[in-house]
Amino acid sequence: MKILNKILMLGLFLSMAGIFVACGDKEESKIESVSYNVLAEESDFYDINGQTKTATAGSQAYVNISPEFDAVIIDRVMFNGQECIKSETIENRYEFTMPSEDVTITVDFYFVDNKSDNFLTWNTSNDTTFEIFVETEGDTYFSQWDDGELTADVTKNPSQTAGYFTEHAETVFSLSQDVVPNEALAVTVGYRQSTSSAISFTVKIDRTKIHAGEAQIVLLVDNEHKFGDASLLVCTINVVSNDVI
Question: What is the pLDDT of residues 110-126, one digit of tens each?
Fold first, then answer.
């Protein structure tokens, strides 16, 4: 009788173990089938030309990132802080293995100097060395005469303007805030005589607010006659103290 009871108990134990194993398999399968989201951060300086939107953990995922302008260079593409692998066969594609969590794609990029882009060209007479202005007694700063200037000329009719570039938006910023803070920068627009058609964009540099060193200045002009049409110019300037010149 004791032997029979032991056999019955052993059978019950094995059947229960089978149930737990089966449940474990179902739970594991359920976990593996969960899809996670992929979000790529957008920017004015690069395009997202396709990407994995959702994927399960362990599967291969990708994002296509291309510069919006020639002056923009993609350095690294990251997923949740880890670097993606650039595809050797597909241009501008970056790949990664999906983790067990939602993913945020971020892009590290930098700017290089250029002479022209789309409808804008830096004026060849631009000086790229600027002296810090230090006010002394009897020497007052007048922005209309004393500001540094970098002028970009409109050298091609922007798309859909028919020669009348009347709608535009300008952005200027510095990549070295300790040398040229953004508060030292402004943009003025030069217009064709007797019309409101823009023919130039001049970056004004307040020389009382700058400090010795090098800084890249970025000028972005959007053509608001056509969505997506823009020019990006980049220039490195050298700021020197007034006892250097």
Answer: 999 999 999 999 999 99
